[in-house]
Amino acid sequence: MIRRRDPGEVQGWGHPCRAYSYAAIALLVHTIEMAEGLPGWLAARDPSVLLTGPQASQALIGLGLGGMAILILGRSVPNRPVQIVVALVVGMLLARVVTLVTLSLAGWNYVPGTATALALVLPAALWLYRNLPLADPARLIGAGAGVLAMAPITWAALWLAG
């Protein structure tokens, strides 16, 4: 006899709610790579840059923990406002991937975090974006707002860390 599956039943690795967890884990690994490598990368740059290694590490850790908290909350709380904030985080993650790849290509040298951004963050963020329980305009607007908010939120985190 063939058993019919309940549409809400958790089914293996591909269940949509796992996208939140994968995105949180990808962000954790990415944050660790950046926090470990960015201070040395910054130290090798022009000393006129006002950003210090410890300041960058503190800001990255704060942003990473905040993003992971929102992703974990999004997995647990399916209401619209929380999911819009998750879409904002997804947009910020995608913007970070583009920024790191652009910086690596522009300087012809590896910027710490680029590998995990491409290998982990990009696929996890795209998978989560695809599985967000939002209608397309809200999902697109939330992610687009995240892309636009990445720079100011990053600067605010750096200012708080400084």
TrEMBL record:
<keyword id="KW-0472">Membrane</keyword>
<feature type="transmembrane region" description="Helical">
    <location>
        <begin position="110"/>
        <end position="129"/>
    </location>
</feature>
<feature type="transmembrane region" description="Helical">
    <location>
        <begin position="56"/>
        <end position="73"/>
    </location>
</feature>
<dbReference type="Pfam" id="PF13787">
    <property type="entry name" value="HXXEE"/>
</dbReference>
<protein>
    <submittedName>
        <fullName>HXXEE domain-containing protein</fullName>
    </submittedName>
</protein>
<feature type="transmembrane region" description="Helical">
    <location>
        <begin position="141"/>
        <end position="161"/>
    </location>
</feature>
<feature type="transmembrane region" description="Helical">
    <location>
        <begin position="20"/>
        <end position="44"/>
    </location>
</feature>
<keyword id="KW-1133">Transmembrane helix</keyword>
<feature type="transmembrane region" description="Helical">
    <location>
        <begin position="85"/>
        <end position="104"/>
    </location>
</feature>
<keyword id="KW-0812">Transmembrane</keyword>
<dbReference type="InterPro" id="IPR025671">
    <property type="entry name" value="HXXEE"/>
</dbReference>
